[in-house]
């Protein structure tokens, strides 16, 4: 599992750890890890390469200057550009001077950057507030130009200008090829739009671990998913493995039913029961489906319901949403059903409810503009989870799963190729199937998003949504070969 902690937690852990160590130890650890990581990103090694350190006035600049000193010690030509020469980290400057580095002011930045092989962004880290101020923004522009001419930009702890806690980018920010972060990930490194500025992530262990509280955010890795995947046992039969009911599709959109059932068949439940008017299309593609014309209340027992893809909003759709919400089993609410599900009824449910909106649907439920949700995804997914007292999976470039009282989850496997018609229908079926197989709403949401993203990454693009469903068994096997 990858963990991300809020700035306040990092600061408290740092203070507790620092009290046990000689002064300067943590910065030395950070700088050593940073310098080693820089060596790794420079093809052909450090010796003789031109490094430009952009140093702000806080400890983030200190880290960058100390790392610059180490790189100079390994034979790099290092120039530090201090944003404010009178306030730059004095010990860091002294270390760099001793190692043979040059120190200059912002006026000389364009010339230095034009020849750089490597740029270290040490303007702000977790102490940054708001978008970059004008002089720092100019350096970010100059670094972008250097990057376009082939320099590698490495952000120190965070790309300067992104919000560490929220993943928001309130103004100008650095764009990095890689970010070397210290002690723990920060939410802003994992959540878009900021995550897009961070490039490849590298964590340097500085010993904070024992002092960190519960994370703000976590991201499942292969081994976590392998542990959570439902695996049939010797005594399993199709009912014990779980039956997932799918209420989807309409005369107008039969394809949504086919895609949701396609996802559901690949999510580990023992059987898929389809309820709705698209039974012929579903059976034509997936003859193993148990089909009934409806309504859901008469369809027979299921361990979880998925309702919404292509459902429409006619009388039948409303009745189906009512009946499904009345069931005492987990329910996944997607697409059209999000609009039809009464908030108070969802809040009153005792069995788990999982809402799976994209940004536009989440915005409509919260009565805000879509751009607001996209700008601050983490806070909006949390607001929605609180408003509905439910688990919420917010789809998008970095899919998030939130539930009150637990760390939010961010999906690390997403790809922009998933922005294709019907992709959400497959996800809802797949995730509902995991619910029926016994996973909690939070686990089902995050495992569903993980497999869905991974399947897309392993499908040749451009692809149609049904191909994602077809690819799930392959990635399931790659995550858990023995299951
Ligand atoms: N915690 C840990 O465990 C460890 C932390 N470590 C390191 O310390 C870093 C935190 O250092 P920090 O607290 O000194 O703050 P930092 O990020 O340098 O920023 C403050 C400076 O930025 C400026 N500034 C602010 N906003 C700005 C803006 N929009 N645009 C432009 N400038 C802006 C602000 O200016 P001021 O407001 O003072 O005028 C001030 O000069 C952390 O990220 C990590 O790298 C490691 O060494 C080891 C362990
Ligand atoms: K930085």
From TrEMBL:
Binding site residues for AMP:
395-399, 424
A molecular-function term among this protein's GO annotations: ADP-dependent NAD(P)H-hydrate dehydratase activity
Question: What SUPFAM superfamilies has UniProt attached to this entry?
Answer: Ribokinase-like, YjeF N-terminal domain-like
Instruction: Give the multimer and partner information.
Output: Homotetramer.
Q: What cofactors does this protein use?
A: K(+); Mg(2+)
Positions that bind (6S)-NADPHX = 59-63, 125-131, 157, 256, 310, 358, 425
Query: Binding of K(+): at which residues?
Result: 60, 121, 160
NCBIfam families in UniProt: yjeF_cterm, yjeF_nterm
Which processes are annotated in GO (biological process)?
A: metabolite repair; nicotinamide nucleotide metabolic process
Start and end residues of each YjeF N-terminal domain? 10-214
Q: Which reaction does it catalyse?
A: (6S)-NADPHX + ADP = AMP + phosphate + NADPH + H(+); (6R)-NADHX = (6S)-NADHX; (6S)-NADHX + ADP = AMP + phosphate + NADH + H(+); (6R)-NADPHX = (6S)-NADPHX
What is the organism field in this record? Answer: Streptantibioticus cattleyicolor (strain ATCC 35852 / DSM 46488 / JCM 4925 / NBRC 14057 / NRRL 8057)
Q: Which residues form the YjeF C-terminal domain?
A: 221-479
Can you say what this protein is called? Bifunctional NAD(P)H-hydrate repair enzyme
């Amino acid at each position: 599992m990858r963990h991300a902690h809020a700035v306040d937690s990092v600061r408290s852990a740092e203070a507790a750890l620092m009290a046990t160590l000689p002064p300067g130890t943590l910065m030395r650890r950070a700088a050593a890890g940073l310098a080693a990581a820089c060596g790794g990103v420079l093809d052909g090694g450090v010796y003789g390469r031109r490094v430009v350190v952009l140093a702000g006035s806080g400890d983030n600049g200190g880290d960058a200057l100390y790392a610059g000193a180490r790189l100079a010690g390994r034979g790099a030509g290092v120039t530090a550009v201090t944003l404010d020469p009178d306030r730059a980290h004095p010990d860091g400057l002294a270390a760099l001077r001793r190692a043979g580095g040059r120190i200059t002011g912002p006026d000389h930045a364009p010339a230095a950057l034009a020849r750089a092989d490597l740029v270290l962004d040490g303007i702000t880290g977790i102490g940054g507030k708001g978008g970059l101020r004008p002089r720092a923004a100019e350096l970010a522009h100059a670094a972008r130009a250097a990057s376009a001419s082939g320099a590698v930009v490495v952000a120190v702890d965070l790309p300067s200008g992104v919000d560490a806690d929220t993943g928001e980018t309130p103004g100008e920010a650095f764009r990095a090829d890689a970010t070397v972060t210290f002690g723990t990930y920060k939410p802003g490194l994992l959540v878009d739009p900021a995550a897009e500025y961070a490039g490849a992530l590298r964590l340097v262990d500085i010993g904070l671990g024992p002092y960190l509280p519960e994370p703000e955010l976590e991201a499942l890795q292969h081994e976590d998913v392998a542990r959570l995947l439902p695996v049939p046992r010797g005594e399993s039969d199709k009912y014990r493995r779980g039956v997932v009911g799918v209420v989807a599709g309409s005369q107008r959109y039969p394809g949504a039913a086919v895609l949701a059932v396609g996802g559901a068949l690949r999510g580990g439940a023992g059987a898929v029961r389809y309820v709705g008017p698209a039974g012929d299309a579903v059976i034509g593609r997936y003859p193993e489906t148990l089909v009934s014309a409806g309504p859901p209340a008469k369809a027979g027992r299921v361990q979880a319901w998925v309702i919404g893809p292509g459902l429409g909003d006619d009388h039948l759709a409303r009745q189906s949403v009512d009946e499904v919400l009345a069931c005492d089993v987990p329910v996944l609410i997607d697409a059209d059903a999000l609009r039809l599900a009464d908030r108070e009824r969802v809040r009153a449910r005792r069995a788990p409810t999982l809402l799976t909106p994209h940004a536009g649907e989440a915005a409509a439920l919260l009565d805000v503009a879509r751009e607001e949700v996209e700008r601050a995804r983490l806070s909006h997914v949390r607001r929605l989870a609180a408003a509905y007292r439910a688990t919420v999976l917010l789809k998008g470039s970095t899919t998030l799963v939130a539930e009150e009282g637990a760390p939010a989850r961010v999906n690390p496997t997403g790809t922009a190729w998933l922005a294709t018609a019907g992709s959400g229908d497959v996800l809802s079926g797949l995730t509902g199937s995991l619910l029926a197989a016994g996973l909690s709403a939070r686990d089902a949401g995050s495992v569903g998003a993980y497999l869905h993203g991974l399947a897309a990454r392993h499908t040749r693009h451009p692809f149609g949504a049904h191909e994602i469903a077809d690819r799930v068994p392959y990635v399931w096997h790659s995550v858990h070969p023995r299951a």
